[in-house]
Amino acid sequence: MADSPTIHVDIVSAEGEIFSGDVLRVFAPGSQGELGIAPRHAPLLTLLKAGELRVQTPDGAEQSFFVGGGALEVQPKGVMVLADTAMRAADLDEAAAVAAKQRAEEALKGQVDKVTEAEALAELTRAVAQIKLLEKLRKR
Predict the structure, then answer these.
(1) What one-character DSSP code corresponds to residue 104?
(2) Which among 21, 26, 39, 125 has the fewest CB atoms less than 10 Å away?
(3) Can you say how many angstroms the Cα of residue 84 is from the centroid of all Cα atoms in its chain?
(4) What was the pLDDT predicted at 138?
(5) CB 56 within 8 Å of CB 39
(6) Do 80 and 104 belong together in one domain?
(7) With the C-alpha atoms ordered 86, 92, 93, 94, is the resulting torsion angle positive or negative?
(8) Which CATH number covers residue 108?
(9) Are 122 and 98 contacting, i.e. CB atoms less than 8 angstroms apart?
(10) Pair (46, 106) in one structural domain
(11) Helix H or strand E segment including 70
(12) How many CB atoms lie within 10 A of CB 91?
């Protein structure tokens, strides 16, 4: 039996499935750095940070997604991305990301408890990651 040159990937979030299909490569924002996953990759379970997740389709094209954190699991039969939030990069709203960044920065300026501070920091991280991804996409 010949090995398949592709690997199946599913990208899901609480909102639902955003992508499912066979790809040549997956590039993900791992908590310890960017990951590159190809067919026959060793099994892996890791956390994701907010950022760009890319898949390279069999025709060589790339599709970009924004993930707001989550987990990634690599098994022999495929890759499962369980994202806190996920959307196609083309669907990102720059105005909303800038507004979220400003709200988070304002929340951090005041006297806040630890829970509010953690929520504001998480929101700031997601907003900054979205803005960086939008800037990167504009350069392509």
Answers:
(1) H
(2) 21
(3) 9
(4) 85
(5) no
(6) no
(7) positive
(8) 1.20.5
(9) no
(10) no
(11) strand 62-75
(12) 9
For 42, which DSSP code?
P
Dump pLDDT digits (tens) for 36-83.
999 999 999 999 999 999 999 999 899 999 999 999 999 988 999 999
- The torsion angles phi and psi of 4, rounded to 5 degrees, stand at -75, 140
Q: How many CB atoms lie within 10 A of CB 18?
A: 20
The pTM assigned to this predicted structure is 0.84
Instruction: Return the C-alpha torsion angle 27, 41, 33, 79, nearest 10.
Output: 50
Work out how many domains the chain is built from and give that number. Answer: 2
Angle at 11 between CA 6 and CA 17, to 5 degrees: 125
Determine what percent of the chain is predicted with pLDDT higher than 70: 97
Quote the tokens at residue 42.
């060793």
Instruction: Look up the domain containing 106 and give its range.
Output: 93-139
| pLDDT level of residue 10 (50, 70, 90 thresholds) | very high
Instruction: For CA atoms 93, 30, 86, 22, give the dihedral sign.
Output: positive
Q: Which residue has the higher pLDDT, 1 or 20?
A: 20
| Parallel/antiparallel/unpaired status of strands 7-13 and 78-83 | parallel
